[in-house]
């Protein structure tokens, strides 16, 4: 099965070098937290909210974009969480006893909550900041690959998460545009 072949091709990169294992752990388990903080800081500084002489006034004018971006990510993550319990897809270490993950993970695998959240975040940013959105898409892709190499997700989990995150961010943007065009 192609899903398993791709999984083992990436997973077999781990457990070969402590430095490369650290890179996988950083990309798959630490970088996601840095990304959330970075996106928040980017949205604040991009609009010069913190640099303004009246930051609260600026923030009131720009909060919609920040809320839209993070609402897209959180809603996408919630959908992925619900789908995990509906679909019940096991993780690689549940299927193959020889898998030794680089960091602990629990629950079902499909769709990947990380892939869903970070792709939704990237797409939501892309709608207003194209270049930054592309950068975040590459980061989301890197996080997804690292989570496969770490042994906590199959490729299908990541692809499913990317698709779900993209659809939810797009749907949230459509609803937002309809509400604010009619207002």
Order of helices and strands: HHHHHHH
What is the residue-averaged pLDDT? 92
- Give the overall shape: globular
User: What structural class do helix, strand and pairing data support?
Assistant: mainly alpha
The number of strands is 0
Strand content: under 5%
- State the name of the first-level CATH class: Mainly Alpha
Radius of gyration: 18 Å
In the CATH hierarchy, what is the architecture at level 2? Up-down Bundle
The CATH homologous superfamily is called: Phosphatidic acid phosphatase type 2/haloperoxidase
Domain module tally: 1
Amino- and carboxy-terminal Cα gap: 51 Å
Search tags:
mainly alpha; globular; Vanadium-containing Chloroperoxidase, domain 1; 183 residues; 75% helix
Structure description:
The chain is mostly helical and 183 residues long. The chain has a single domain (2-182), classed as Vanadium-containing Chloroperoxidase, domain 1. 75% of the residues lie in helices and 0% in strands. It contains 7 helices and no strands. It has helices at 2-11, 18-46, 55-87, 92-95, 113-126, 130-149, 155-182. The longest helix has 33 residues, at 55-87.
């Amino acid at each position: 099965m192609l899903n398993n072949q791709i999984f083992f091709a990436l997973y077999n990169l781990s457990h070969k070098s402590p430095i490369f294992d650290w890179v996988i752990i950083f990309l798959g388990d630490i970088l996601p937290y840095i990304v959330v903080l970075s996106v928040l800081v980017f949205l604040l500084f991009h609009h010069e909210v913190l640099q303004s002489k009246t930051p609260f006034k600026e923030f009131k004018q720009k909060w919609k974009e920040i809320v839209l971006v993070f609402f897209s990510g959180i809603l996408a993550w919630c959908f992925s969480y619900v789908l995990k319990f509906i679909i019940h897809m096991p993780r690689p270490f549940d299927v193959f006893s020889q898998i030794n993950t680089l960091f602990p993970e629990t629950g079902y695998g499909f769709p990947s909550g990380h892939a869903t959240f970070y792709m939704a975040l990237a797409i939501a940013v892309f709608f207003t900041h194209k270049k930054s959105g592309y950068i975040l898409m590459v980061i989301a892709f890197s996080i997804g690959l690292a989570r496969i190499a770490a042994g906590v997700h199959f490729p299908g989990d990541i692809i499913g998460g990317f698709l779900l995150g993209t659809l939810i961010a797009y749907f949230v943007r459509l609803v937002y545009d309809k509400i604010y065009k009619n207002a």
